[in-house]
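Repro case for the chain-ordering regression, as requested:
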Amino acid sequence: MTVREYLSPRSLPEALSLMERYGPDLLVMAGGTVAMPLINDGISLPERVMGLRHAGLDGIAQRGDVLGIGAATTLTQLLAQDAVPLLREAARNTASWSIRNMGTVGGNLFTPPPGGDVAVALLALDARVRLAGPRGERTLPLADFFTGFMTNALAEDELLVEIQVPTTVRETAFIKFGRKHANTPAVVTVAIAVERRDGRIGTARIALGAAGPHPIRVADAEAAIVGSALESDAIQRAADAAMRECRPFTDAIATEWYRRRMVGVFVKRALERVVA
Amino acid sequence: MASTIVTFELAGREVEVMVKPMTTLQAVLRYQLGFTSVKEGCRQGGCGSCTVLVDGEPMMSCLLPVEDVAGRRVTTLETITPDEGVHPIQQAFIDHTAFQCGYCTPGMIMISKALLDHDPHPTREAIVDALAGNLCRCTGYEPIVAAVEGAAQATAGKGAPR
Ligand SMILES: Cc1cc2nc3c(=O)[nH]c(=O)nc-3n(C[C@H](O)[C@H](O)[C@H](O)COP(=O)(O)OP(=O)(O)OC[C@H]3O[C@@H](n4cnc5c(N)ncnc54)[C@H](O)[C@@H]3O)c2cc1C
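-- result from build under test --
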């Protein structure tokens, strides 16, 4: 182990000032369930690590129509809330109990695919992320946070501090399909949120995990159901569009070919769940 | 890399360890304190053989810098085993032959202890769900699930001791 110093800031200002002092060489870590395995294996060899466990960035608070989720909120804490059922469902399908007690909601947004199951649900919910840095704070849509495979909009001197989720979305569905029932990497993850006007779909968000370089939305699939009453042919058109639009990959879990087909299957099933 | 001193609660006592930065709780327990029930399995959080409880909640000690448990209560198989005899969950594992090589057993018992503390009468589904992060390559899991069901009956209503 080559780590020279482990820093445990007690507040956000302290965390930000440590980042300013040590610059980009400081490794930020929240629950450590992604960072620690790499350190244990010697793949990541940081000199200085800053742990966020005691920085006061955890906790969930309802503010009007928005649920504010601190970045360092654990997945177990997310499972315990009932304001947003889709997030419970996503947390329940992520990792195992011990990992959920450690891993954080914020950390999930940095987890490369096929991980990031909670991030997929957050994308379907049109969540926003609040970032803090030496120049102050800014919030942006989660969709703009992801910029590529393991890259994001976070500046080197910024921290993710909060995820903001609208609690007004009522019709949602979540399916994670893996090789096992639990504690398994995704073949594909699908999260859907729709709003209806007079029985017809007004807005639709269909988010996929393990089907691109980061959690993605599939605009053509969404367009295929807007204005419909989720009749079976609209659902089939959305599933077909999602299969065309997604950008899956091959890894030890599944091939690109298989993932694409499973996108079709599970977008369809998730939409049927919304109907039911 | 200056060493630091970390204090936490173990077996009802305050223990103080001097560690290099970011030594894992797993390494401290097993190699510094001799608590050899805490296995060094995959060191990836993937196998569960290092499962311990921190303030009663199960965690993978291989992913936990010991600095993060400063001031907190750590529970291992050693700390729940009575001076005489065995813990009811251990007895249930014996009664159901819920192990062969035994490597996963301490982690299995610790996650089961956490489950029974939270939920003294878990459904089979809840047991299977709780055990999902703990791998066993010998038993096929059925005897382990049966052991947890047996332990739930043996400790019914009272929860698991200690
Ligand atoms: C056995 C196992 C099973 C798993 N199963 C799943 C699964 O089923 N689905 C899934 O999605 N994931 C899974 N994971 C991955 C992981 O547990 C989760 O993604 C978890 O949410 C990551 O959060 P963390 O806080 O532990 O991340 P960390 O390891 O603490 O963080 C990883 C990196 O993210 C960055 N970061 C984290 N928080 C912040 C912040 N607030 N500000 C700035 N940067 C930050 C840092 O660069 C950090 O190094 C699994 C992991 C393991 C070990």
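Ordering looks correct now. The mean pLDDT of chain B is 95.
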